[in-house]
């Protein structure tokens, strides 16, 4: 067992984990942050996408010990009080979800995508960039719409997503 | 996943020592191949030695046209490097085609080369660029580095520290991705130094990445897509699997080579 600590959604947290404990399990089970989902558990679907040190990563493919000392942002850390993050608001507005299972990963992927494209996004870029996030419900159209709208709404303030 | 002892190395020396002291240790870089393999118990090391905090394994530098990429440099860093894009845009393009953004944020060039997946992207570039793989103890020419499926010339305890190459006059990369995995079903990297052409193929060979003599000969004469008209690549040493037959891959080699040359000619 190893003692680890990290910053999660702006709070310092610590815990004791086995070497093999996955980051997603640490977040969900030790910290109770169940917004991050496990879909495929094989690095394909992106339901477990979070940000580690400001970059989107698949938390089912990272050991909790690898994140020792890191800065983690999960879906729970996006809204400010009752005010949804612009990407969350856009998903709501544009019906970017049906069952909602893929949504936390989609939104964490989207905020990272918007951060990396301050020049703005095109539909083709959004579709290409969603390579690692699978949705079984929506057919992606409204997800793409929501991300384009959020990117537009965030304009020059895109850096906020990081 | 079986339990594992995790160690974080701060230097190459420390990493080597940690591996030596371990029962059945393995180096860990981005973990984008090793962690999934451990989850399915295809790999079950007793110890993991994390290389990702070793500063000297990171970064991209260029001296004239000589490019050095640290083994711990992520696919996303390669894809986003303006210096590299100016010298060898085919390589930044290639890095941007690996997996997806999240995988690219973790996965490293050193991990990809050490793994030598027969459908991985970097091996084609490294072979076509006649790059040198630099390790903690020696330099290995790309030609000698890839020794078969998931096999390399590396010793068990040898660490890749960097990859070095001369930026080519022209280069291009084209990939036909497997629609499910996005790994290459067949992909071709072509590079020309102004005299000789090198073309390396990944995703298609029975024995992993290889240089394609037929494509090189045709492009040596005429470095253009039409220079490849009528070229046939023998299917004998190509892979057949549920995704594609060897014959289909043979025709993909020529088709991808044409796209790669188009890119190289800008
Ligand atoms: C969903 C998904 C899609 C992917 N798609 C593609 C794709 O399209 N194309 C592609 O090429 N790859 C693809 N990959 C693989 C990805 O590129 C990996 O990042 C890469 O193969 C391994 O790099 P890593 O840094 O993650 O290495 P790790 O997984 O940490 O290590 C891999 C192996 O290399 C060894 N190793 C690591 N670093 C060193 C070093 N410096 N010296 C010596 N040995 C070392 C390790 O011991 C281990 O055996 C994909 C992966 C995933 C999960
Ligand atoms: S649960 Fe992590 S990628 Fe599917
Ligand atoms: S909304 Fe159901 S999986 Fe995407």
Q: What is the structure about, briefly put?
A:
The complex is a heterodimer of chains A (162) and B (266). Chain A is an alpha+beta fold.
SSE diagram, text form:
The complex is a heterodimer of chains A (162) and B (266).
Chain A: E1 2-8, E2 11-17, H1 23-30, E3 49-52, E4 55-58, E5 71-73, H2 86-93, H3 103-116, H4 123-129, H5 141-154
Parallel strand pairs in A: 1-5
Antiparallel strand pairs in A: 1-2, 3-4, 3-5
Helix pairs in contact in A: 2-5, 3-5
Chain B: E1 5-8, H1 12-21, E2 25-28, H2 34-39, E3 47-50, E4 60-63, E5 66-70, H3 75-80, H4 82-87, H5 89-96, H6 101-106, H7 109-115, H8 122-128, E6 132-135, E7 139-141, H9 142-145, E8 146-148, E9 151-152, E10 160-166, E11 170-177, E12 184-192, E13 197-202, E14 210-211, H10 213-221, H11 246-264
Parallel strand pairs in B: 1-3, 2-3
Antiparallel strand pairs in B: 4-5, 5-10, 6-7, 6-10, 8-9, 11-12, 12-13, 13-14
The structure holds flavin-adenine dinucleotide and FE2/S2 (inorganic) cluster (2 copies).
The site of flavin-adenine dinucleotide (FAD) has 32 residues of chain B, from strand 2, helix 2, helix 6 and helix 7.
Give structural notes.
The complex is a heterodimer of chains A (162) and B (266). Chain A has helices spanning 23-30, 86-93, 103-116, 123-129, 141-154, and strands spanning 2-8, 11-17, 49-52, 55-58, 71-73. The radius of gyration of chain A is 15 Å and the shape is globular. Chain A is of the alpha+beta class and 162 residues long. In chain A, strands 2-1-5-3-4 form a 5-stranded mixed beta sheet, sandwiched between helices. Chain A folds into 2 domains: 2-76, Beta-grasp domain (Ubiquitin-like (UB roll)); 86-161, [2Fe-2S]-binding domain (DNA polymerase, domain 1, Orthogonal Bundle). The model of chain B has no long low-confidence stretch (mean pLDDT 97). Chain B has helices at 12-21, 34-39, 75-80, 82-87, 89-96, 101-106, 109-115, 122-128, 142-145, 213-221, 246-264, and strands at residues 5-8, 25-28, 47-50, 60-63, 66-70, 132-135, 139-141, 146-148, 151-152, 160-166, 170-177, 184-192, 197-202, 210-211. Chain B is of the alpha+beta class. Chain B has a 5-stranded antiparallel beta sheet with strand order 4-5-10-6-7. Chain B is built from 11 helices and 14 strands. Chain B is globular. Chain B has 3 domains: 5-50, Uridine Diphospho-n-acetylenolpyruvylglucosamine Reductase, domain 2 (2-Layer Sandwich); 55-166, Uridine Diphospho-n-acetylenolpyruvylglucosamine Reductase, domain 3 (2-Layer Sandwich); 170-264, Enolase-like, domain 1 (2-Layer Sandwich), CATH 3.30.390. Bound molecules: flavin-adenine dinucleotide and FE2/S2 (inorganic) cluster (2 copies). One FE2/S2 (inorganic) cluster binds next to loops of chain A.
């Amino acid at each position: 067992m190893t003692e680890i600590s990290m910053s999660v959604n702006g709070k310092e947290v610590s815990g004791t984990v086995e070497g093999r404990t996955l980051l997603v399990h640490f977040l969900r089970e030790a910290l109770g942050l169940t917004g991050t989902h496990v879909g495929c558990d094989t690095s394909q679907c992106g339901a477990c996408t979070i940000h580690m040190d400001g970059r989107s990563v698949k938390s089912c493919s990272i050991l909790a010990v690898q994140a020792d000392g890191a800065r983690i942002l999960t879906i729970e850390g996006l809204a400010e009080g009752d005010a949804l993050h612009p990407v969350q608001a856009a998903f709501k507005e544009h019906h970017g979800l049906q069952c909602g299972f893929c949504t936390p990963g989609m939104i964490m992927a989207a905020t990272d995508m918007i951060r990396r494209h301050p020049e703005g996004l095109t539909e083709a870029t959004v579709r290409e960039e969603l390579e690692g996030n699978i949705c079984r419900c929506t057919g992606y159209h409204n997800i793409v719409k929501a991300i384009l709208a959020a990117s537009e709404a965030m304009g020059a303030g895109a850096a906020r997503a990081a | 996943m079986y339990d594992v002892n995790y160690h974080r190395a701060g230097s190459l020396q420390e990493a080597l020592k940690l591996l030596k002291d371990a029962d059945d240790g393995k180096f860990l870089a981005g973990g984008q191949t090793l962690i999934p393999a451990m989850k399915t118990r295809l790999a079950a090391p007793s110890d993991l030695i994390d290389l990702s905090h070793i500063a000297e394994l990171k970064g991209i530098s260029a001296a004239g046209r000589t490019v050095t990429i640290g083994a711990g440099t992520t696919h996303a860093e390669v894809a986003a490097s303006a210096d590299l894009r100016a010298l060898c845009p085919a390589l930044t393009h290639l890095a941007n085609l690996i997996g997806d953004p999240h995988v690219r944020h973790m996965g490293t060039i050193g991990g990809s080369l050490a793994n030598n997946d027969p459908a991985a992207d970097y091996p084609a570039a490294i072979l076509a660029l006649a790059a040198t793989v630099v390790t903690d103890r020696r330099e290995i020419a790309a030609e000698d580095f890839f020794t078969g499926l998931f096999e390399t010339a590396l010793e068990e305890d040898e660490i890749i520290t960097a990859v070095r190459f001369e930026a080519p006059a022209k280069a291009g990369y084209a990939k036909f991705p497997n629609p499910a995995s996005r790994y290459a079903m067949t992909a071709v990297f072509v590079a020309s130094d102004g005299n000789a052409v090198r073309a390396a193929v990944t995703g298609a060979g029975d024995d992993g990445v290889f240089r394609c003599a037929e494509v090189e000969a045709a492009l040596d004469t005429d470095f253009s897509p039409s220079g490849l008209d009528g070229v046939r690549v023998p299917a004998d040493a190509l892979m057949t699997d549920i995704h594609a037959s060897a014959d289909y891959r043979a025709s993909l080699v020529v088709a991808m080579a044409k796209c790669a040359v188009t890119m190289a000619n800008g």
